[in-house]
Amino acid sequence: MTDTTRPPYAGTRYPKLAEVPAFTEFIARGWGAEPVPAPMVDGAAEAAASHRRRLSERLPGAVIVVAAGTARVRNDDCDYLFRADSDFVWLTGCQTEGAVLVMTPVPGGHDAQLYAPPPFRPGDTGFFANAAHGELWVGASPGLREWAEALQIGVEPLPALDDRKDLGGALAAGAVSEALVAEHGLEVSPQLGRNLSQLRMVKDAWEIAQMRLAIDATVAGFAETVREIPRAVEDGLGERWLQGTFDRHARTHGNGPGYATIVGSGAHAPVLHWVRCDGPIVPDAALLLDMGVEANSLYTADVTRTIPASGTFSPRQREVHDLVERAHRAGLAQIRPGTVYLDFHFAAMEVIAQGLHDWGLLPVSVDEALSPSGQFHRRYLACGIGHHLGLDVHDCSKAEYEDYMGAELEAGVVMTVEPGLYFHANDLTVPPELRGIGVRLEDDVLVTETGSEVLSAGLPIDAVGVEDWTKALLA
């Protein structure tokens, strides 16, 4: 029998509190103003304006629509933490969920207009009923006026986008929803995506400064992580403790990790994307750490070091590390303006193939291994030797081959160099003493007017330097 004296309002939805007049009237009043400035990184609005001008010059006369996207569902009614689409951020400096940028042709360029969801303030049903965006649930947020002042462009409420009748055939990119594409007749445009990737390949001074912040924070995060090795070993906390250590550092000193942090000890080190991190830290094994802080501007670092958990490499670990280091230095030596992007890849691969041949691991000659029809050495190095880096860890991925792999490097490109050797524990083609050893060296490199600069040079790359650095942190 139902107790009619006790209203069954266990939550905000079933039955709906919004349908209780006394409640909605009472919760709508008595709130003080709580203005919140738009969370913008210094210089982001000016950089975004420059980026829009560059895109406008590429696509004169085109109507352009780029969206920030929305948070993905993790499970049931819980979402993953929102991260705005990189193209949208590059063009706006804004990270507001659900926002849409429209660039409309005008004489001399494009007019930029942002459409964003207004916050749910007191008096709005969403204020108390929307657990994802209501200010009662998530805190005060900037209004459209604050965003307009920060972004230096017009900002309208998202529903006003429905009134636009001039978007048919507009070029769409970023995280534009299928519903928006269908409603306005947008054209999801590979051309627009390619142009954005091409433009993002060369970083401006502001972007390079953001990359330096991310990389410096990452270097510091490596030190914080290595200091926790004794606790991870002695208390049995394992790889996940080190992963969590870096992720906490990244969340404290930036937006968070730029990608899933990789911590691979012993037999896990050869696994290229070992993000489960559910194993122990083996005291006498090599420990591969692939980690990057994403700055608050969303520019990310991507750095890898392989260290001896004990402070000293075994002879075989040292031998593998030395070969990877030689390949790494050969790749770095190719980074300068005017060289073809892939030159660093081929230079590093030649060193790897020669080393594997010298160890008797290749069934063919070095030339046969390196030939397009051979590639035998790639059994132990199946991935590439590097990639562009920026707002995405694998930046500018919508570029075509001739834009990316076949292009000449120019000043302002930021890229990684990351050769490695991965001898899996169950690989019977290698001698037992090599099985379970994985080594990768990865640095973030800026192409300068005269050569290159290793932005992650705060970490050593030679085996002796790595050992000394590790021992100092473990002491």
UniProtKB/TrEMBL annotation:
Protein name listed in UniProt: Xaa-Pro aminopeptidase
Enzyme class, broadest EC rank: hydrolase
Organism taxonomic ancestry: Bacteria, Bacillati, Actinomycetota, Actinomycetes, Glycomycetales
Entry keywords, A to Z: Aminopeptidase, Hydrolase, Manganese, Metal-binding, Protease
Keyword Cell wall biogenesis/degradation: no
Pfam families: AMP_N, Peptidase_M24
Catalytic activity: Release of any N-terminal amino acid, including proline, that is linked to proline, even from a dipeptide or tripeptide
Domain Aminopeptidase P N-terminal: 46-185
Family label: Belongs to the peptidase M24B family.
Cofactors, names only: Mn(2+)
